[in-house]
Write a structure and sequence with these properties.
Blueprint (H helix, E strand, L loop, with lengths): L1 E2 L2 E3 L1 H13 L4 H22 L4 E7 L2 E6 L7 H27 L5 H16 L7 H13 L2 H29 L6 H15 L7
Parallel strand pairs: 2-3
Antiparallel strand pairs: 1-2, 3-4
């Protein structure tokens, strides 16, 4: 389904519906708000830095912002744009945690935790995540694009291998009950196979 520059995949709709159905605590809406604000952080930074987003694609794997090839961002600006999303989440985590401490509602701790988790996850040095893009752009700025790609590819492979190994060990030790980490590793392995392009956020 396409609405202007926004493309919504069937997998996204199915996952969103399933999570909403299984969510008895109202966490999904808070998580979607965190994700939306994260992407808005990227959008604002890209616009301020002179880039242009030509498409926002929502899939079961997350959100992708495709940048215009006609207005590419140089490495320094690419790094700033990549870090803008996690920066928004970190600011929200700190701000909402302080509001919760001041008595504005215990649910704000949940929102703070979701934002902190989203920021930390996206800062992992993996090819298709913000941390990997920022690392690649930083190394390109300091040394070369080739080195940036090689280092990020090595970090991605090491993290995927570690998740798969530890996930398999936990599955074995729990006699098949603890499979969450293994699923995360398989998801990361599948994403690594897609070989995300640098201009996609």
């Amino acid at each position: 389904m396409t609405l202007g520059r926004v493309e919504v995949g069937g997998g996204f709709l199915l996952c969103a519906a399933l999570l909403y159905y299984l969510d008895g605590e109202g966490i999904v809406l808070w998580a979607l708000m965190s994700c939306a604000l994260h992407e808005l952080g990227h959008l604002a930074a890209i616009r301020l830095l002179g880039g242009r987003v030509v498409k926002l694609r929502l899939t079961c794997a997350g959100a992708e912002l495709r940048l215009s090839a006609a207005r590419p961002l140089p490495p320094g600006r690419m790094m700033a744009a990549a870090l803008a999303g996690p920066a928004v989440n970190l600011a929200l985590a700190v701000g909402t945690a302080r509001l919760a401490r001041l008595g504005f509602g215990e649910r704000l701790y949940l929102f703070a935790g979701l934002n902190l988790g989203l920021a930390c996850f996206n800062l992992l040095p993996v090819q298709w995540l913000d941390g990997g893009r920022a690392l690649a752009a930083g190394l390109t700025l300091l040394w070369s694009e080739r080195l940036g790609k090689q280092v990020v590819a090595a970090c991605t492979a090491a993290l995927v291998a570690a998740l798969l190994a530890v996930g398999a060990l936990l599955l074995w030790e729990s006699e098949g009950r603890n499979f969450t980490l293994l699923i995360a590793g398989l998801w990361m392995a599948g994403m690594a196979g897609r070989a995300k392009r640098a201009e996609i956020f």
